[in-house]
Write a structure and sequence with these properties.
15 strands; single chain; 9-stranded mixed beta sheet; 12 helices; 55% helix; elongated; 409 residues; alpha+beta
Length: 409
């Protein structure tokens, strides 16, 4: 028989016992579907994280400074040093903003907001061209902090959408809010970025970093946000910052520098490693499916021993018998692979909607993306598993003695 005849015979054999065929293919179906789901979720998460980093800006460089002795050593850097570095290398560094976290009680009238995040930043923290701050959210009303606000330590602030609604009923511009007993005038309101609830990314206040340092009672800044002139100069900009800090501290244990590009690469690497581990775990189902195919093919050989004897007596050679059973095993695994691919794509779409609902990102957020490469590899592996595990039963059938096979009852 040629390939077409063997294939038709294999399909006929599967249709003769549909339930047994389905149970035989179950391991392949589950394994292929699991691989498709995992790779789809991994690709979706990778794309989602890359979009988040793109929103923050591919040129962003974060500098964490521990210093020597918590700022009490003579070897220290201050915001003026960082500004001087930007002025010295404008072709590589576009700007810098100190980033000072303040732990303080926020009040408006009799209401207290204990979970509100307060950050001291400079005017560079806001990108007017993109209408976006370095943390990703956009300005909705009013204006952001200006150079004059920062230079003169003016008690002004920009608040998140949660405070604007909860404290001011949506009419916050020009009103005052109290931080550690000091009234700050609201000059801007950020657009809703998270879910506009207490403690979320929308429950935030931005004030001039000098005011934040006063509220903390310290002159020490441990975090700076730089921006390189463009994406291509990011590594050079990072090197300039490293050189400046090493010159001061004489050790690289006093600071840590990471660019957005490095963060993206690190996250992609961790995600790829996690995906590889999960795919290997899912591949165990394919191994189980292959064992199931081998088992059922051994049973099939036993059931069709007399048929094999008749074919051999009519002139069928060993390779003919072997190819027939290998094609049958491959067909079984291929059909299981197709069903698994369809199930995996369906589940990926379902999980896309579930995760988007949980994250609250809508249609522009997380999307599980099945790839043609993942689908092709999954299908190829499923067929390969069927052929591999079907070879032993096929070889057993091919080596049967025709006389003994005809006598088999």
């Amino acid at each position: 028989m040629n390939f077409t005849q063997s294939f038709r015979l294999a399909v006929k054999s599967l249709l003769t016992s549909k339930m047994r065929a389905l149970l035989t293919m179950l391991g392949i179906i589950i394994g292929v579907a699991a691989v498709i789901i995992i790779t789809s979720l991994g690709n979706g998460m990778q794309n989602y994280m890359n979009r988040q980093f793109d929103q923050l800006g591919a040129n962003l460089i974060q500098v964490q400074i521990w210093g020597l002795g918590g700022g009490m050593s003579s070897r220290t850097v201050d915001p003026d040093d960082m500004y001087a570095l930007v002025d010295k290398y404008p072709q590589y560094l576009a700007g810098v903003s100190p980033y000072v976290s303040v732990r303080s009680l926020v009040r408006h009238g009799s209401d207290e907001y204990e979970r509100t995040s307060i950050y001291g930043v400079s005017e560079f923290f806001y990108d007017a061209q993109r209408n976006q701050v370095l943390s990703g959210s956009k300005l909705g009303e009013g204006r952001f902090l200006s150079y004059v606000d920062v230079e003169r330590y003016q008690n002004v602030c920009v608040i998140g959408s949660y405070l604007a609604q909860d404290a001011f009923g949506g009419d916050a511009l020009g009103k005052s809010i109290t931080i550690s007993g000091t009234p700050f005038t609201v000059i801007g309101v950020m657009e809703e970025y998270a879910d506009s609830t207490e403690g979320s990314s929308d429950d935030v206040i931005f004030i001039p970093y000098g005011n934040a340092m006063r509220l903390n009672g310290t002159g020490w800044v441990d975090l700076y946000l730089f921006s390189s002139a463009d994406k291509d100069t990011s590594n050079l900009a990072k090197g300039i910052i490293e050189s400046r800090l090493y010159k001061t501290f004489q050790t690289d244990d006093a600071y840590y520098i990471m660019s957005s590009a490095e963060m993206m690469d690190a996250m992609d690497s961790m995600l790829n490693t996690l995906m590889a581990i999960l795919v290997l775990i899912a591949a165990i189902s394919l191994l189980v499916g292959g064992i199931g195919i081998m088992n059922i093919m051994l049973v099939s050989v036993t059931e069709r021993t007399r048929e094999i004897g008749i074919r051999k007596s009519l002139g069928a050679k060993r390779r003919d018998i072997r190819s027939q059973f290998i094609i049958e095993a491959g067909t079984t695994s291929a059909i299981g692979g197709v069903i698994g691919i369809a199930l995996g794509i369906l589940m990926a779409n379902v999980l896309t909607n579930v995760i988007a609902l949980v994250l609250g990102t809508g249609n522009d957020g997380f999307v599980a993306v099945p790839t043609l490469t993942g689908i092709a590899v999954s299908f190829g592996v499923s067929v390969g598993v069927g052929i591999l595990f079907g070879y032993l039963p096929a070889n057993k059938a091919a080596r049967l003695n025709p006389i003994d096979a005809l006598r088999y009852d």
